[in-house]
Amino acid sequence: MPSTLGSSSQPQTAGYRRLQALTPHIAPLSFNVPPPMEQRNALDRMAAKQIERRIRKKEEKSYSSDSSSSSLSSTSSIGESALTSHDEVNGKQKRRSDKAERKRAKKEERKARKEERRSKKQERKGEKAHGKKGKKLEKDQRMVEKMDYIVIEPLDT
Q: Among 13, 31, 41, 142, which is least packed, fewest CB within 10 Å?
């Protein structure tokens, strides 16, 4: 028997009303799940192992966060996970330092290339300025050479 909007026996939240509206379209939850299929090829086996590792990691995290369990097996698994996480932390730190070193080296290379381009540009400017000065000197010399042939005679003869 569907409940009416005015009845006080059911909560009247928006989420509940949405669920009531969707009930004809929602399949019932079933716990009768068939057993996993047998792995047929290498990809299936790899995927299964990956899933097992993920489940194991989640369990280890939940065990390490649960401080009330004091059994020997959980203590040993926590110790193993601590060693593993310590190794992982060391590996992450090493990768980070390597990445920072590569980044710093790359930055230095860029700076060196920029400085090299700047010095080449200055050289070109210097050569250009020197070339202009040289051309001006040549022009002045030609004018002087033309002037050598001009004979100046005195006017009182």
A: 31
